[in-house]
């Protein structure tokens, strides 16, 4: 892809918008072209993803939910009294409700999500359902260090990271995130992680190419967001969704394919796309149970328990941070 760069404006934007703009421009300048998947989740994107989770082809949500419902009691026994659950990328918190109902000893919940509007709506709904639970939402990008609410006090932290979101990270990035979570939650803390497993490629391809086209709309909504928030000029009709399983890399890849030779402007920068050129928007890595366990051990965790569905489609891992539980408070103060 070639680009034509004009003198950029210096718009008066907030930090979040500036970071978004920098990430988009950096990705469009990259070879191959890419966009960070975390920007899927504006309000519309979050709502579209919730629709995806209900589709017949999309097995991960219902399979992980089934695992959590079947083993909630066993997981709850691992959670200490007066604990705080910190959820990385909370979304609708539907799976969190299973955990919270099974573990009444949890006294606080910290949903962390990049989509502020969606987070506020879901937090209000959960607080209404569970009035005795202290809910302390944090609008933040959980892939970077963020500040935990001071209201947590000295409660032991329980990390919750469902949905196989760990698969959206490159392996070295996943390692960094696991280490970051261990440092934030503290030695001896529990981290419950959902992980999608390697399986028949036909099942995987169908899950990301649903017949209703919701995943395609979700993918294209990223361009809509760039148009709306960054003054982009993407013609959505000139791009189409493409997703496929890369067996060698053990990952689903999602792309937006240019249907013609075209020029697109974003922030006074002009980008030329060839016909057939793609913008790589997401990877979703698939693990075996043992490969993820090895990955977790390498990032400073031990394996407390692993739960898998009967079809071997999905796994939920309860990880324990190395070190004594009593040392956790020294490292898990708000702001770490």
Question: Can you tell me about this structure?
Answer:
There is one protein chain. 35% of the residues lie in helices and 25% in strands. The protein has 10 helices and 14 strands. Strands 2, 3, 4, 5, 6, 7, 13 and 14 form an 8-stranded mixed β-sheet that branches. A 3-stranded antiparallel β-sheet has the order 1-11-10. Helix 4 (94-102) links the parallel strand 2 and strand 3 (106-113). Helix 2 (43-52) packs antiparallel against helix 8 (214-230). The protein is globular and about 60 Å long. It starts with a strand and ends in a 5-residue tail after the last helix. Mean pLDDT is 90; it is low at 1-13 and 324-336.
Overview features:
single chain; 336 residues; alpha/beta; eight-stranded mixed β-sheet; 35% helix; disordered N terminus; disordered C terminus
Provide a brief overview of the structure.
This protein is of the alpha/beta class and 336 residues long.
């Amino acid at each position: 892809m070639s680009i034509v760069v004009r003198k950029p404006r210096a718009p008066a934007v907030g930090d979040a918008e500036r970071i978004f703009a920098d990430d988009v421009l950096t990705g469009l300048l990259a070879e191959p072209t890419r966009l960070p998947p975390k920007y899927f989740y504006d309000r519309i994107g979050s709502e579209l993803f919730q629709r995806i989770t209900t589709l017949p082809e999309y097995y991960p949500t219902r399979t992980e939910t089934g695992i959590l419902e079947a083993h909630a009691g066993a997981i709850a026994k691992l959670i200490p009294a007066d604990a705080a659950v910190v959820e990385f990328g909370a979304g609708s918190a539907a799976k969190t409700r299973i955990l919270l109902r099974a573990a009444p000893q949890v006294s606080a919940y910290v949903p962390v999500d990049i989509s502020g509007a969606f987070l506020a709506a879901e937090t209000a709904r959960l607080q209404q359902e569970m009035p005795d639970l202290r809910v302390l939402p944090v609008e933040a990008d959980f892939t970077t260090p963020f500040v935990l609410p001071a209201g947590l006090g000295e409660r032991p932290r329980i990390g919750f990271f469902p949905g196989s979101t760990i698969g959206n990270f490159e392996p070295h990035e996943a390692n960094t995130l696991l280490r970051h979570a261990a440092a934030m939650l503290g030695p001896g803390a529990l981290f419950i992680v959902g992980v999608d497993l390697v399986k028949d490629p036909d099942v995987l391809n169908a899950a990301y190419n649903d017949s209703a086209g919701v995943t395609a709309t979700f993918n294209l909504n990223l361009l809509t967001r760039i148009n709306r928030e960054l003054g982009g000029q993407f013609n959505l009709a000139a791009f189409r969704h493409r997703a496929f399983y890369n067996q060698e890399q053990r990952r689903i890849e999602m792309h937006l394919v240019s249907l013609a030779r075209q020029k697109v402007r974003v922030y006074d920068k002009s980008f030329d796309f060839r016909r057939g050129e793609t913008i790589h928007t997401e990877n979703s890595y698939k693990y075996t149970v043992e490969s993820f366990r090895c990955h977790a051990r390498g990032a400073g965790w031990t394996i407390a328990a692993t739960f898998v569905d009967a079809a071997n489609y999905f796994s939920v891992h309860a990880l324990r941070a190395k070190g004594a539980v009593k040392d956790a408070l020294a490292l898990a103060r708000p702001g770490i």
